[in-house]
Write a structure and sequence with these properties.
- Helices cover 70% and strands 0% of the residues.
- Helix 3 packs across helix 15, helix 5 packs across helix 9 and helix 7 packs parallel to helix 12.
- The chain contains 15 helices and no strands.
Amino acid sequence: MRKHWQLYLLVLPPVLFFILFKYLPMANAVLAFKNYQVTKGIWGSPWVGTKYFDMLFNNPQFLTLIKNTLFLSLYQLAATFPIPIILALLLNEVRSLRFKKAVQLITYAPFFISTVVMVSIIMIFLAPRLGLLNVILNALGMESTNFLGDPNKFRSVYVWAEVWQTTGYSCVIYLAALAGVDPSLYEAAKVDGASRLQKIINVDIPGILPAAVIILILSVGNIMSLGFEKVYLLQNPLNLQSSEIISTYVYKIGLLNANYSFATAVGLFNSVINLILLVAVNAVSRRISENSLW
């Protein structure tokens, strides 16, 4: 440590960040087992055991929340996981550096758009009367559709907007993995007479497989922690049937209704499920592909 103190100093800020904002707040999860009273504070409030967990499991909305969260998360994972890999493999085959950089810039740019601006763009684009998509549908002789007012279409709107926003950013990770593939493997494939498709299958995909497995494990580990901001901003009374997920429910119960203990219980249940999924998928990956987080 004395010899390489600069490196330890460099890693100190993120370590402090995780300790202060991730690990220390975990102690306050005890709020889920207490009847929180502002005047007494978290640790001074009386214990109520598993009262709020019983309320959660007996809540008529419980199964709907789980179903909506899981369905939306799995749909998002099925779309956002393979598309960046495909884009990276295609860009890796492009010989024109200018075209490659242009595609990267165009696909990467939406990632820097804030969630509020992104949702505004989506709402304007899908507006029932003046939205560009409905204008095109009307020009083709089709009726206008209220995409954000239909519970069945809400999931597709959310997921494909997420694909548009995150594909370019996720693609960079796989391009970096492809850059680390040993060039001698390509030369050997060329000598063996392999086609471009065969090079992709036998050289490129094995080269990015470790990175893809790690990203998949992390994605599955966060499958119950669906992004709150975009879902909440796209919500309206018409699509609430399919858009109400655990994170939006916690916000409404915990902050808007000031039921902090119940909201903490819901959040703690959500985190425990994520942890179980993460450990299980990591164990399966370690046995099948020998790639894992630990």
